[in-house]
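Hi, here's the filled form for the chain we discussed.

Project: internal
Contact: R.S.
Residues: 78
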Amino acid sequence: MKRFCSIFSQLLQLFPRLEFEQAVKKHQADRGAKGFTTWGQFVAMLFCQLRRAHTLREIGGGLASCCIDDWIDDSNQS
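And the returned structure, exactly as it came back:
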């Protein structure tokens, strides 16, 4: 079975994950984080912004309806 990249996945490829992680480490942005990593938060906020979600219900429904774990999962680092 073939897998196709969604437009959102293609958009995320425009943000170099390695550079993002280096900036996080440099500025200690994950210090004190309890749940989402900075990458996970970035992905979720970008998704919500592009979807023009206004309520928490819209955000939760939108994230649940797609494979958001594939984009947030730390094991898929590029």
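Let me know if anything looks off before we file it.
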